[in-house]
Structures are given as C-alpha cells and as structure tokens.
Amino acid sequence: MKLLIRLAITAAALWVAVWLIPGLDFEGGVLGFILVAALVLAANAIVKPILSIFSFPLILLTLGLFLLVINALVLQLVVWLSSQLDLGLTSTGFFWATFLGALVISLVRMVLDAILD
Q1: Which of 1, 5, 26, 65 falls between 20 and 30 A from 12, CA-CA?
Q2: Residues ≥6 apart with Cβ < 8 Å to 73
Q3: Range of the domain at 111
C-alpha cells in the first residue's frame, strides 16, 4: 500500500514538473505515465544512493547543493530510459529542463510526503 502511495506522489510530482517546465514534455497515455513514475521511483531507489556515495566529498564541499545535480542526473537517466522504452518522456536540454524538472519533482514530493504523513 505504501508503495502505491509513493507511486501516486511521484506521478503527481512528475505531472506538475511536466506541466510547469517548458522543455520537459510527456506524450503518451496514462499507463506510460505510470511506468515513467515507476522508473523515477526505481532510479531514486537504486541509482541515486550509488551516485550519492561516490560524490560524497562534493556533497560536503557544496553543503548539499550537489544533490540537486544528482537529482538532475537521475531524471536525465529516466528520460533516456523512457526514450529507449518508448514511454514518451522527453527533455530538450539537460541544464534547464531536466535540472528544473528535478527540482520541481523534489519539491512537490517533499510537500506531498509532508501532507500525507
């Protein structure tokens, strides 16, 4: 049950990011959107901790701001996987669209997690 709630929160955060950020687009159906949200969850659970461990000195040096770059890298990985699996999530550029999209997703997830807990 908790996994479904996390999936719904991630899907809502992804929807807000696609809606707000120009250059981060989704063209597909509801099933594709749910699969992309599941990819975001999986990437956050598997890839993000590995990147965080390897970049720990940079995270300390920047007082945690490098975590924003890690979030953008994870979202860019999801965009790439989405294009390989033909799910419909696209990004026009790494720095602005993906970086801002990752920031919006993180903020919306944080707010929704706080509301639902």
Answers
A1: 65
A2: 51
A3: 2-116
For the packed helices 30-54 and 66-84, what is the interaxial angle rounded to 10 degrees? 140
Structure tokens at 76: 């860019």
pLDDT for position 110: 94
- Compute mean pLDDT per 10 residues along the chain, 117 residues long, and list them: 92 95 91 94 95 96 94 95 93 86 95 90
Give strand pairing partners of 25. Answer: 90
Report the distance separating Cα 26 and Cα 29, nearest Å. Answer: 9
Q: CA 63, CA 58: separation in Å to the nearest integer?
A: 8
Instruction: Give the total number of structural domains in the chain.
Output: 1
Place of tokens 């989704």: 26
* pLDDT at position 72: 94
Q: How far apart are CA 2 and CA 33, in angstroms?
A: 19
Spatial separation of the C-alpha atoms in residues 87 and 109, rounded to whole Å: 22
Query: Around Cβ 114, how many Cβ atoms within 10 Å?
Result: 8
Predicted TM-score of the model (pTM): 0.92
